[in-house]
Predict the structure.
Amino acid sequence: MRKELQDNDSSPWSEDARAWAVSNGLITGSGTLVDGEPNYMWADILTREQFVTVLYRFAQLIGKV
């Protein structure tokens, strides 16, 4: 099941937020897709480790770290 979630399929309602997160380095993806594009795995499960990494990157972005 998880293999099906590990691609860039996503909903249109989150497009602006996803673009912002990628452009600010909060989300970097995991490997690449067949076409060479970064694999952001938008529909996959978020682990606590991934969550704190995003929080840490956000803290760096706003100068808190």
About this structure: The mean pLDDT is 91.
